[in-house]
Write a structure and sequence with these properties.
The complex is a heterodimer of chains A (298) and B (272). Chain A has 298 residues and is an alpha/beta fold. Chain A is 48% helix and 14% strand.
Amino acid sequence: TLTRGFKNARDRFRGTTRLNEENVGEALREVRMSLLEADVDLGIVRDFLERVTERCVGSEVQLKAGKKKDQQNVSAGDYFTKSCYDELVALMGQGEDLPPAKGTRVVLLAGLQGTGKTTTAAKLARHLKHRGEKVLLVAADVHRPAAREQLRVLGESIGVEVFSREGDDAAAICAEALTSAREQNLDTVILDTAGRLQIDDNLMTELDAIVTATEPDHTLLTCDSMMGREAVNVAKGFADRLLLDGLILTKLDGDSRGGAALAIRSATGVPIRYVTLGEDTERIEVFRAEGLASRILG
Amino acid sequence: FSRRNTLDASTLSEIEEILFAADLGVKTADDLLEAAKQAGSTDAVHAALEARALEILSGVSTPPEADVSGPKIVLIVGVNGSGKTTSIGKLAARHIAAGKNVLLAAADTFRAAAIDQLGIWAERVNAEIVKGSPGGDPAAVAFDAVKAAQSRDVDVVLIDTAGRLQTQGNLMDELGKIARTVKKLVPDAPHEVLLVLDGNTGQNAIRQAQEFSRQVDVTGIVLSKLDGTAKGGVVLGIAQEVGIPVRFVGVGEGVEDLIDFEPGAFVRALFD
Ligand SMILES: Nc1nc2c(ncn2[C@@H]2O[C@H](COP(=O)(O)OP(=O)(O)OP(=O)(O)O)[C@@H](O)[C@H]2O)c(=O)[nH]1
Ligand SMILES: Nc1nc2c(ncn2[C@@H]2O[C@H](COP(=O)(O)OP(=O)(O)OP(=O)(O)O)[C@@H](O)[C@H]2O)c(=O)[nH]1
Ligand SMILES: [Mg+2]
Ligand SMILES: [Mg+2]
C-alpha cells in the first residue's frame, strides 16, 4: 500500500546509534506521507516535521548501543518515535469531561449534517445520568424528517426524558424546555440541533437565536473523524459564530486516521472533550491524546 | 498561482497545497502535480490540472443504463450519516417526475426512527413503501419489497440500508446477504448499487469504496453534501484506484437537491 507508515520510518534507525539530519530526514519523509494520508493539513505537517527535526537533530542525543545491560539506553528509533509522538500529543491537548453541573445548565450540540449530534446527545445524557445528574434532552431539530422521533426513541432507551413539541421555532422550543427544566430543578439540559452548513446564513442565524434564548454553559461541536481537509474551515465557521468550548470527535470506531481532528484543534484552539466509538449509547469516552496520536501516525 | 513563467519550487508547493486541500490524496496529487510540471508555465497550469483531472474521471464514466424488464432494483449503501435515506427521497422524486412507479424498501431496521424517516420521504414524493418491523431482518424487508414490486407494476425499487462502517465485518456481510436475497427473485438484481459518499470525507473514502465493493458490486457513487465547502476531490482517487464513477451529486437537503454528475463542471469547481 502507499502508506508504509510510521513503523517504516522508525525501522530506518535499526542498527544506527546516532540521529543525524540524513536519517531523520529520510524517516520524516515516511512520516510526512503517513500524515498527509491521515488528512492532516499540509501546514501543520510542515510545522510538525520542523519541530521533530529540531528535537532529534538539534540536541545532543545520548544514544549508546547497549554496552551495560543495567544502563537505561535509548535507541535512535525509540528517541525518534517518542519525539514524533510527544509533538503530536502536545499539538492535541488532553480531553476534559464536562464539570459537575451547578444550577440548571445548558449543553448545546452543533455541527454539520450527519456528524452524530442526535446520537451523541443521547450518549452524553446517559453519561451524565450515570454521574447522578437529572438530565433533559431537547429535540430542537425542527427540520429533519423524524428527528424528534429519533431522539424520543433514544431517550426512551436510556430512561432520560425528551422535551419535544411541534413547531418550527427552534429557539422557542429550547426556551420552553429550559423554563420547564428550571421549574423541575434539573441539572442539565442537552439541546439537539439540526445539522447545518457553517455557510448557511439562515441556519446559522437560527443557531444564534437558540444561543440567545438559552445562554448555553457549554457549546460542543460534533466533528466526523473521517472528514477531510475542509474540517478546519467548517470548525472555524462555527467557532466564529459560537463560543465553542469543546469538540466531540465521532465515529472513531472506523478506520479513518482522524487527522482532521488535529487540524481543527490547532486552528481553533478548542479542546477535544470526547470521542464516540459506535452507535450504542454507551460508546462515548473522554478524549485521550495518546490514542489519537498513535492512530494518526499510523 | 502568482504570475511567473516558470514553475519554481514555491509555485509547485502552492499547487500541492491546493490539491491536498481539495482532498485529492497523495497518489492522485502526485499525478496531477506531474501534469502541472509538464505545463511549463503558470498560465498553463490551471488548464493542465483540469485536463488531467477530467482524463482521470473519463476513465470511469459509465454508458447509459440499459432498460430492464420488470422492476429495476437499486441498493443504496454507505457509512453512517452519509445521506443515503435523503438521497433515496431525491432519486425517487426524479423517477416519479419521469412517470415511473417507485417503491421504497425500508431495510434499515436498526437505527432509531429510520423507518419513520423514509416513510416521510415516501409521502413527500408519492412513492410506495414496504416496511419491516424495527429490529427485523433487513434482507427479509428487501425480499418483501421486491416481491411486492413484481406484483404491483413498480418500475424502480430503491432499497435503503442502515449506515455501517467498513470496519464492521458482520454488517458488511449483511450487505452481501441483502444482495443475494434479492437475486433469488430477480437474477440480475441489484441492477445498481449506489454508494452514498459524504462530500466532506477525506482519504478514508477510498477505503470505503474498496471495502463496500468487496461485498456488493458498487456501480456508482452519490457524492452528497457538495453544497458545503468541501470539494470532494477524493472521487479522483476513487476513479484511479477503485474504478467507480460518480453518478449523482447531492447539493442540499430538499427533494430537488440532486444533480447528475458532470465531470467538466466538477473539475472546474475543484480548482476554483
Ligand atoms: N459507527 C458509529 N456510528 C455513529 C457514531 N455516532 C453516530 N453514529 C451514526 O451516525 C449516523 C448519524 O448520526 P446522527 O446522530 O443521526 O447524526 P446527526 O448529526 O444528528 O445528523 P443530522 O441531525 O441529520 O445532522 C447514525 O447512523 C448514527 O447511528 C459513532 O461514534 N460510530
Ligand atoms: N447539506 C446537505 N445535507 C445533506 C445532503 N444529503 C443529506 N444531507 C443531510 O445529511 C443528514 C444525514 O442524512 P441521512 O439521509 O439521514 O443519512 P443516512 O446515510 O441515511 O444516515 P444513516 O441511515 O443514519 O446512516 C441529514 O440531515 C440530511 O438532511 C446534501 O446533499 N446536502
Ligand atoms: Mg440529528
Ligand atoms: Mg438512513
